[in-house]
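Incident log, structure service

09:12 report received: a user says their structure output differs between two submissions of the same chain.
09:20 pulled the input from the user's history:
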Amino acid sequence: MSEIRAVRWDAHSIVLIDQTKLPAVETAMECATVDQLVDAIVRLVVRGAPALGAVGGYGVALAMIQGERDGWDSTRLNAEIDRIRNARPTAVNLAWGVDRVRPLVSDGVDAVLAEAQRIADEDEAANRELSRKGADWILANTTRRPLRVLTHCNTGSLATTAWGTALGIVRELHGRGEIEMVYADETRPLLQGSRLTSWELTQDGIPHVVQVDGAAASTLLRGLVDVAIIGADRIARNGDTANKIGSVGVALGCSAAEVPFVVAAPSSTVDLSTASGESIEIELRDGAEVTEFHAESVAPEGAKGFNPAFDVTPAQYISAIVTEQGVVEPAAGVLVDSLVPEGERP
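09:34 re-ran on a clean worker, output below:
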């Protein structure tokens, strides 16, 4: 299967696959300043919780290098690091990546870069492990073979440092010969399913179709899907999960169709300091992303777009949450504490 590296460090800059231009153009964006990096994060040149964790780590090093070059004092440096940390509020991994390397700033750029690289390496290993665990759980809790899977948004290599989370499970199942078809939701507002997930599935030769988000519930109720697998940008302590807008609709459809709804993410996405989904800030994006397409209006003049980037799925609708640490079943009332390494629990 193809190996895609959405995020990498190169000398004094962060190199990102420009995901706003896929699938038409495969190109990279080099970020050599904090302004460029924050812009890339906000515009979704780079996105996906695990990838943002690595970007947060590398971003601190980038700020340090720019600060040395431009003569920033410690106050300015900390302010610029905070800009990176807060660029996307819903996804916990960006702040987590910054916070993990920030205590090493006084030790120098090399120490920060080494820790940032560890974040990237650990993420790939975690993705592969959670993919194995998730595939095992799904095969133990479904009967039809081969499987028909529904996905929402993009959770593959483009959303991580390598391999993928929910799409990593799909890749693992495909490698075992257990995938018949993937129904990939297009995922509004930026079509990350049709542009990115379909692109990755094509790279790997995995049979799939792209469907509009509004078709997901019908596809489930018609009995065309055996399991839905999505990612998460934040997992609250009670098992509520935040993911791309439309995820909760898939969960409700799965509940009605009695189809397992599986959430896959690295343990760094579990935020034990957030008690429930009610406390998760939902990022609200520019309404023009809904009312326009390629700068052409698709709504009447003066119409305003409502554009939340995420929604929250209550734990009661989640059959399983999978991390590299294991699998828990929130719908059965199981807490997610065990999905976080013991030494990292509050």
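09:41 both user submissions now match this output. Likely a transient worker issue. Closing.
09:42 reviewer note: The radius of gyration is 19 Å. The CA atoms of residues 64 and 109 lie 7 Å apart.
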